[in-house]
Structure formats: C-alpha cells, structure tokens
Amino acid sequence: MNDSSSARPAVVLDVWCELQCPDCRSALDDLRALRARYGDRLELRLRHFPLEKHKHAFAAAQAAEEAAEQGQGWPYIEAVLGRVEELNRAGEPFLVEVARELGLDAEEFDTALIDGRHILIVDADQAEGKAIGVTGTPTYVIGGERLDGGKSQQGLRGRVEEIADRLLAEGV
Questions:
Q1: Are 168 and 148 in contact (CB under 8 A)?
Q2: Does the predicted model carry a pTM greater than 0.85?
Q3: What three-state secondary structure class fits 51?
Q4: Band of the pLDDT at 4, cuts 50, 70, 90?
Q5: Cis before residue 50, ω within 30 degrees of 0?
Q6: What is the 3-state secondary structure (H, E, C) of 18-48?
Q7: Distances from the Cα of 109 to the Cα of 2, 29, 97, 103, 155, angstroms
Q8: By CB neighbour count within 10 A (0-12 exposed, 13-18 middle, 19+ buried), where does 134 fall?
Q9: Measured between alpha carbons, how far is 9 from 6 in angstroms, rounded to an integer?
C-alpha cells in the first residue's frame, strides 16, 4: 500500500494509567471519543503507572500486558477499568476471571502473574513516567506536552484534540 496517508506517522498519545484508578475509568469515555475521532491517525499507547495506594494495580498492569500479548489489550483494559470496585475487592482472581470472560487463555494469565514475565515492562513504564514528572493517573503526553488528568479531566479531551489537530496539520 503506497497510499501517502497511510505512510504518514500517527500522532502518539501516551496515557499514563493504572487499572485500579477511578479517575482512569472516568477517562475511558474521552479515550473512546479520541479513538473514534482519529482512528489510526492517533496512536493511543497505554503506559503503566501503578500507584502504591492501590494494592492490585501492579498485578493489573502485568495482566494488561498479557492481554495485549494475546491480542486483546484495549478490550481487557476497558473491562477491568469498568469494574474497578470488583478489582478492589477480589484482586488477582478477578484479573484472571476477566481474561476468561473475554475468551483469553486464563491459565496463561495466571501463570504470567505468578512468573512475573511482564514486570520489566511495567517497571520501565513507571520509571519513564517518574522521569518526565508523572505523579498521578491519568496523565496524558502528546507532542511533548504533559496534561495531568488526575487533578481534573475538565477540558482535557479538547486540549488533546487541539494538539493532535495541530500535529496532524504539520504532518508530524
């Protein structure tokens, strides 16, 4: 496919998130709207930033990586975020149950959480987040600009759209 529009690189939106965070759940509608508006012109990348106050967040980040490896990253992320209270109550068994509900290999999830095969990815994301000043979730980074959604998400989608539109117009 030599179509010039597909050759243009997508604008990248990094979303520093954790799956036990109610604010991240609130951000889901914005993320869905952004995906619907931009399609493949916006590459939405979930970056892990588990917070210490949420005891299941680190396991949930590893589970999200396993879901991505099994080809269901975003559906899994949305399913877990949509049921934060269940994750709070049930912990890791809930993460495996969601995998089963989505038709993923739940035993492989269980094994991945035990053997820690995705820990390095989660640790690397968290270290990078700290290095660029992420302190809470969700935090968005687009075009070198950091937008903190942990304090308030008011107007953030509009700001992301402004930056994305500008970058797309510039052909960045």
A1: no
A2: yes
A3: coil
A4: very low
A5: no
A6: CCCCHHHHHHHHHHHHHHHHHHHHEEEEEEE
A7: 39, 27, 9, 12, 37
A8: buried
A9: 8
